[in-house]
Amino acid sequence: DTAVRQFQLSAANKGEKIACLEARRHYAWYLKGVPHAGYYKEQIVKITTLEDVYRVTKGIKRDLC
Predict the structure, then answer these.
(1) What's the pTM?
(2) Alpha-carbon Rg of the chain, whole angstroms?
(3) Do residues 22 and 28 make contact, with C-beta atoms less than 8 angstroms apart?
(4) DSSP code string of 1-65
(5) Is there a contact between 22 and 52 (Cβ–Cβ < 8 Å)?
(6) Which residue ranges of the chain lie beneath pLDDT 50?
(7) Contact, 4 vs 33, CB < 8 A?
(8) What is the distance in angstroms between the CA of the first residue and the CA of the last residue of the chain?
(9) Where are the domains of the chain?
(10) CA distance 8 to 35
(11) CATH architecture designation of domain 2-64
């Protein structure tokens, strides 16, 4: 939830395109200890919209439960 909030605020301030580019760089920091982190890192480099951020986050939350 913290990562998503960070990207939402970034999108509001800088625009979705810049926020998604930043998300690619920063999201990996949130993956330490997450099962299947390698798979999610592959997905993160493809992020182009906030919907992509939500989709990846949903998968991560599913794997953590």
Answers:
(1) 0.82
(2) 11
(3) no
(4) -HHHHHHHHHHHHH-HHHHHHHHHHHGGGGGTT-TTHHHHHHHHTT--SHHHHHHHHHHHHHHH-
(5) no
(6) none
(7) no
(8) 14
(9) 2-64
(10) 24
(11) Orthogonal Bundle (1.10)
